[in-house]
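Following the same procedure, sequence and fold were stored together, as reproduced here:

>
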Amino acid sequence: MARFDYTIEYKPGKQNVAADALSRRPDHVIAAISSITFEPKLREAIVQAYAQDPVFATVTPGTHGFRLDDGLIYKDDRLCIPADSAVQSQLLHEHHDANLAGHIGRDKLTAALKRLYLWPGMAKAVREYVASCPTCQRIKPTNQAPAGLLQSL
């Protein structure tokens, strides 16, 4: 850096638009959340659950944006997850409780899952999962104003 001639200039808040836009890009997410890698057991559970699923059992690859890749059904590059509570809860656990995920809240978890997966009732499943997470309930921030100074009686 010594070879370059540069000056550091402070730009307050709203004037520093470029840096703010870069820091909020949705494609810059944690690697654990942004990549789809499965244990072989989970992959097999998804493939087997397609047969019992009322929505995805009748899907024909090549129509309405669906495609079949190695036994898994994708729609618009999002993996279709069958209505199997064990599969869904495992995905929720991996994207919410993993060390790199950091117990992200309901809205961020829903957004992260919607980028990768598709299943009917996802928002409700996420809402119920986060509401039942004991860690999230313990560390949930308060939405009340501070109590203020003590007043003498």
The CA atoms of residues 80 and 94 lie 17 Å apart.
